[in-house]
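During the second year of the project, the team shifted from modelling isolated chains to modelling whole assemblies. The rationale, set out in the original proposal, was that interfaces cannot be judged from single-chain predictions alone. As a representative example for this report, we include one of the complexes processed in the last quarter. Its constituent sequences, exactly as entered into the pipeline, are reproduced here:
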Amino acid sequence: MADAPQRIEQLIDLMARLPGLGPRSARRAVLLMLKKRGAVMAPLAQVMAEVALTARDCLRCGNIGDADLCAICRDERRATGEVCVVENVADLWAMERGGAFKGRYHVLGGTLSALDAVGPAELRIPLLVERVADEGISEVILALNATVDGQTTAHYIAEVLEGAGVAITSLAQGVPVGGELDYLDDGTIGAALRARRRF
Amino acid sequence: MADAPQRIEQLIDLMARLPGLGPRSARRAVLLMLKKRGAVMAPLAQVMAEVALTARDCLRCGNIGDADLCAICRDERRATGEVCVVENVADLWAMERGGAFKGRYHVLGGTLSALDAVGPAELRIPLLVERVADEGISEVILALNATVDGQTTAHYIAEVLEGAGVAITSLAQGVPVGGELDYLDDGTIGAALRARRRF
Ligand SMILES: [Zn+2]
Ligand SMILES: [Zn+2]
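Output from the structure prediction step:
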């Protein structure tokens, strides 16, 4: 690519680091943007810059928002008694697409993992314990992925919250073994939520 | 995605329009960017904005550059007697990666296509005829894709340039039937260039 101006090469390199894009597809994406500089590239750059500038992690639940508290934590119509614990923001978005859950969330930021040396302190588990004590939460719904690490994490949280006077449930029917929430259709997530069982 | 701030939804929508990215992979790309706002998202937005602002189509050859003439047209070490005709900038980049061609280019901006109603006037063919007359070009190398439309276009250009006193050659050995330049390895492109034949 000796002929592509340096900035364009840089742009291709940066795009190629995004998940799902390799060097070839990054090049194709950049070529399309170059063809549609006004209609695609300029608006994309602007929205991206705005989001980079304004996006913030919600101090309470870990969701992405644009203020100290995210839109869900600010929304007073959301039930405050139920907190749905998810691994990451992608899973929160998947739950929201399902539209079945009317409570609030707690984003762990990952799962416990011996292999990756992720302990409870690396996740937002201590913060969850605080929230249960402070916010009058009556049910914690564990919506963790049906993977080994996800289930290890679920068991750990159930243990930590034992005696806190809160019901602990988990998504059940409909989540395939080894499946990840973000790949499920909305109906499946809704069914799993309705059929949740005590953990 | 009711919970994602509106700008983030907008960003996902824009990303999903890029080739190779659907709604799901756009979401994953945006989530990664959101995680790495300083290291990935902000620099990407900035480089993209700069390119959107500065990129220009070369007035002579149709390549993308940052001035009236692209870096290749400005480069006095490039042979001026040979012009390589390609369909689009992606193919020009593929030729340059091969590194075998030392002349200059002419980017058509597509191929003739009855189906898509693309005639010679929609491409940069009249400009090619002008260049052959004005720039002392001795050889026009047709490096069009080995597709039906690509070859139709090659034949049309050969016809139009008949009697212009210019040798017309085409890439030969190594370009698989139905193959597209942008998918070939560099060695194949080099071999096809060296073995080019009269058209
Ligand atoms: Zn929140
Ligand atoms: Zn040029």
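Residues 74-170 of chain A form a domain with the Dna Topoisomerase Vi A Subunit; Chain: A, domain 2 fold (CATH 3.40.1360.10). The helical segments of chain A are 6-16, 23-35, 37-54, 71-74, 89-98, 125-134, 148-160, 186-194.
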